[in-house]
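Aim 2, interim progress. The first record below pairs a target sequence with its C-alpha cells.
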Amino acid sequence: MKRLRFVFATFVALFAIFVLAGCGSGSNSEDSVTVGSQGSDLEIWEHIAKSQQAKDAGLKIKVKEITDGTQLNKATTEGQVDVNAFQSWAYYQAYNRENPNGKLAAIGTTYLEPLGIYSKKFKKVSQIKDGSTVAIANNPANTSRGLELLQAAGLIKLKKDFGALGNAKDITSNPKNLKFKEIDDTTGPRVLNDVDVVLISNTVALDGGLHVLTDSIYHEKLDQDTKNNVNILAVASKDKNNKTYKKLVKLYHDKKIQQYIKKKYYGTKIEVDKPLSYFKK
C-alpha cells in the first residue's frame, strides 16, 4: 500500500512539473513571421531578426531574400512570405493596379530613401549639356519617380495630371533635349561610365558604393511632393489586420533599431513614422 502511494505521489509530482514546464514555455512562446526583402533592407531585417527588441516583442523572424520586386510581391500574395520590406508607396500602388487579382495591403510606413541623380561628367545639375543621355528605371513606379525628380531639379516639365504610371511621353517641356535610356534599376552604378546621367535609388546606390547625400548631384527631400516615395511594409490583402504582422511596424521604429539604421546607412534612410492616412492628404 505504501509503495502504491509512493508511486502515485511520484506520478503527481512529475505531472505537475510537466504542466508547469508547459505553462512556462507558453509564456515565452514567439510568433513566427517570414519577412521578404532585398539589398540593404535585407540587412536591416536580418539585424532586427537577431535583436533583443524582436525577442521582447515575442517575434521569431525569418528573413528571406528575393531580389526581383515583382516576384517578391507575388511570393507575399501566395504565402511564401508573410511581410515584405522593399517598396515605396508608389511602387505598391502600381503593382496593385497591374495585379488586380493578387493585391497587397500596406500595414505601415518605414522610411524615405532618396532617389538621386548621379553623373561622372557633371558636378552640378546646371552643368548638364544639351542632348545628354539620362538613364532611368524601366519599371513604372520608378520611371515616374525619376521623371518627377528631373522636374524638381528644373530639367523638364511634366503634364499637370502626371501620375504614378506616367512616362517620358508625359514630358511637356525638355529645354536641354535630354535623351532617355531605360535600364534595369538594379544596374544604375554599372552604367555610370556609359551614359551622361543616371537616376539611382539609394538601396541600389549603397550596394554600388555610392552615398546619395554626398555623391549625387541632386536628390529627393522629404516633403509632400515625395510622400508617394516613402517605403512601406506590405502583406497579402487578406492579412491587412494581422496583429502579429503589425508588430513589425512598431519594431522597425524602435529607438535602438533606428540608431543602428542611421549609423550603418549614414542617415540615407530617413525615418517616416506616419499613419497610412498620410498618403491620402
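The second target in this work package is listed in the same format:
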Amino acid sequence: MRYTSSAIETLIDEFAKLPGIGRKTAQRLAMHILQEHSGEVEKLSRALLEVKERVIHCSECQNVTDLGQDPCHICSSANRDRSVICVVESPTDVLAFEKTAQYRGMYHVLHGVISPLDGIGPDDIRIRQLLSRLSPDGSGSVKEIIMALSPTVEGETTVLYISRLLKPLGVEVTKIARGIPVGAELEFIDEATLSRALEGRSVL
C-alpha cells in the first residue's frame, strides 16, 4: 500500500531500513509518529541526532561511550579485573554479559566478525586494537582472553583466527561453554545461560 503523502512514504522507507523492521512495522511506526504531539517527535529527533554527535568508541575496549567519557565507565572502574578480557562481537553483547552481574573483567568489542562472503576480513574489525592491549612477551597484566562470540560459522572462524594470533603471546585463550544453541545471537540469550557458559569456559 502506498500513501498519498510522500513524507509518510519517506518515513516508512527509512524505518524499514532498520534491522528487524519489516514494511508493516515501519508503517505502524510512521503512523504512530504522525499521531504523536510535536514535542514528543522533537524529543525523538534530538535523541537520534545526539546519539550520532555524542557517542564514540572507547579507546580501550572499543565499546560505545559518551564524548568526554573515554575510557568508558567499565574500563575506568577500579573494581574490574583487568587480567581478563572478554571478546565480543557488538556493544549489545556487553549489555548481555553485564545483565548477568557475574562477570567482573574487561571487554573488547570487535564490531563484527570475519565473513569473507560479506567482504569482511580481519582488518575490517577491531582485532588490531585487541592485540595492542597485550604485551608482546605475555608479561603484561592480561592473563586470559575469553572468546565470547556467537556460535555461527563466522563467529567460529573469528575465534580460530584470533586464538592463533594470541597463543604466541603467552596469554591463555578460552571459549565460553556450549550451553548456547548453534547459530544463536548472544544478545538474545538469557542471563542464566550466559552465566553458565562463562563458568564452563574451556581452554582453546
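Residues 77-203 form a domain with the Dna Topoisomerase Vi A Subunit; Chain: A, domain 2 fold (CATH 3.40.1360.10). This observation will shape the mutagenesis plan for the next reporting period.
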